[in-house]
Each structure stands twice: as C-alpha cells, then as structure tokens.
Amino acid sequence: MKKIITTDKAPAPIGPYNQAVLSGNTLYTSGQIAFNPENGELVLDTIEIETKQVMENMKEVLAAAEMTFENVVKTSIFISDMNNFSKINSVYAQYFNEATAPARETVEVANLPKFVNVEISMIAVK
C-alpha cells in the first residue's frame, strides 16, 4: 500500500507526480529544485543558495513523512555543471552526519527542469 506525502512547506508538483510516496517504511521523494514555496519563485542567486533551497525543500518533504535527514539512505544529485560539485557538496554536507551519511550518486546532465543548476531526490526509511 502506498501513501501520498504532501506539504505546502515545499513546492507543489508541476506535473503528474507527488512530492513523495511512502510505501511501507520507505519514502521515495521526487526531485526538488530551488523553488521558494512561499512565492513560487526560483532561488538562483548563487549555486550555494540554490542548493540550500533545494535541501530546505527536501527537509520539509521529509518532515511531512515524520522523517529527517537521518532517515535518508540514498540520494541522487543531478547537476548541470560538474564544476559546481564542490560548492554543492559543501552545502549538502551541512545536512548530514558524515559518519551516517547516505549512499549517493552525483550525475552531470545536459539540462534540468526550468534550467536550474541542481536537483536532488532521496530515499528514506523509518
């Protein structure tokens, strides 16, 4: 059985998908980009600020499922320019305990929705 997870504290989906789906004890999140959920505007000032907005959006999706970053077992990071990896990674690292950090892949892609620079999705387990 699956349960749809939604929160108005993170950007609403802009297509036929949900913010997250809980199946048993496992949460599968959709990718988040740097939309500010309060005004619907993209936050693209710097790659660090953009990444922080993505992570804050993800924090709210996890919270809606009564989870935190400690529950995350896998992340996928999609970036438009691998030259931004270290800047993205420095912000991302602030949200995890390095000793218990999740598995992860980081992939450079040709384009992302709305031509943003970073998109992150996660899998978490209660």
Verbal overview:
By secondary structure, the protein is of the alpha+beta class. The chain is built from two helices and six strands. It has helices at residues 47-64, 85-92; strands spanning 2-5, 20-23, 26-29, 72-79, 103-108, 118-125. A six-stranded mixed beta sheet has the order 1-2-3-6-4-5, covered by helices on one side. α1 packs parallel to α2. The protein is globular and about 40 Å long. The mean pLDDT is 97.
Q: Summary?
A:
Pfam families: Ribonuc_L-PSP. The protein has 126 residues and is of the alpha+beta class. The protein has helices at residues 47-64, 85-92, and strands at residues 2-5, 20-23, 26-29, 72-79, 103-108, 118-125.
Q: Any key phrases for this structure?
A:
60s Ribosomal Protein L30, Chain: A, six-stranded mixed beta sheet, RutC-like_sf, 27% strand, alpha+beta, RidA, 126 residues, 21% helix, YjgF/YER057c/UK114, 6 strands
* Helix segment tally: 2
Major beta sheet summary:
6 strands, mixed
What is the arithmetic mean of pLDDT?
A: 97
CATH class: Alpha Beta
Tell how many strands the DSSP assignment holds.
6
Radius of gyration: 14 Å
Q: How much of the sequence is in beta strands?
A: 25-35%
Helix content: 10-25%
Question: How many domains make up the 3D coordinates?
Answer: 1
Helix-strand string: EEEHEHEE
Distance between the termini: 16 Å
| Category by helix and strand content | alpha+beta
Q: Rough shape?
A: globular
Find the CATH topology.
Answer: 60s Ribosomal Protein L30, Chain: A
What do we call the CATH homologous superfamily?
Answer: RutC-like
CATH architecture: 2-Layer Sandwich
Strand order of the largest sheet: 1-2-3-6-4-5
Poorly predicted ranges:
none
